Amino acid sequence: MRFVLFYGIGLIFGFGIALSGMINPAKVLNFFDIAGTWDPSLAFVMGGALAVTFVGYRIVLARPAPLAEPRFQLPANRRIDARLIGGAALFGVGWGIAGFCPGGALPALGAGVAAVYWFVGALIAGIFAAKAILKAFAD
Amino acid sequence: MPTEFEPLRALAGGGLIGLAAVLLMLGFGRILGATGILAGFLTPASLQDWSWRAALLLGMASGPLAYAAVTGAMPTIAVPVGTPMLLAGGVLVGLGVTFGSGCTSGHGVCGLARLSPRSLAATLTFMATAGAAVYAVRHVFGG
């Protein structure tokens, strides 16, 4: 039952990514290309997602607990530090170079497009490299 | 490569992304961040922790087929960059989202919806550097 619910939530997300055009790097890159072939669609994707999540979270987080778990697991870290900003800056550069973000690329895995596999392979390599770097600095 | 401005599809698709985020919080109390779900899938804390992530990722990857079942055509995925750029971009995204603890879905949707100052700082930063990267690739180096 849990498996079906998680699958369903992932499916709604993946369908939304496909419908919205976030799955299409050409569209994502054109959002950022204000000086060229600008396509403002992405602002409407973000706007629609934020509106629903903002209202939904207000209702859901007013509850004492989620339906199937004992408590909400919300990020506790409040620090705005060099690691956060540096990481976000690197992510943005990679997003601008390739046109895929993780939320766009993971649903795209199901479309059978070779370019997606190259990107996700490199994404996974980057995640493991970052974890190794963080571990080396923590030791 | 020009693309068509489609505000209604964008809004509807965005609304579904938001609905998925709200449902995950309502049912299981978790942030719907693609980065966090993938990272935990790659290095799981336990079998139970791995299995829900696997189910969610499988659901995500079924999105294009569900879209094709409803509309009769697969979603357009046009990649206007070559393999070296995809690989370089992928590594940078992997490094960045791990150091920065999130991406467009985790910080840009869930974090902003929680009015998290951390997510606002991250979102403004990655939107700015993405814009700068696209400008550099297309208008400075000539793409």
How would you summarize this macromolecular structure in one to three sentences?
Chain A is mainly alpha-helical and 139 residues long. Chain A has helices at 2-20, 25-32, 41-60, 82-98, 102-108, 114-138. In chain A, 53% of the residues are buried.
Question: What coarse outline of chain B follows from CA principal-axis ratios?
Answer: globular
Summarize the helix and strand pattern of chain A as letters. Answer: HHHHHH
Radius of gyration of chain B: 17 Å
Question: Element order, helices and strands of chain B?
Answer: HHHHHHH
Which structural class best describes the helix and strand composition of chain A? mainly alpha
Question: Using only CA atoms, what is the Rg of chain A?
Answer: 18 Å
Q: How is the quaternary structure best described?
A: heterodimer
Largest sheet of chain B: none
Compute the number of helices of chain A: 6
Principal-axis shape of chain A equals globular
Structure classification of chain B: mainly alpha
Mean pLDDT reading of chain B: 96
How many DSSP E strands of chain A? 0
Major protein interface: A-B, 116 and 110 residues
The unreliable regions of chain B are: none
How far the N terminus sits from the C terminus of chain A, by CA atoms, comes to 41 Å
Percent of residues of chain A in beta strands? under 5%
Low-confidence stretches of chain A: none
What's the N-to-C terminus distance of chain B? Answer: 11 Å
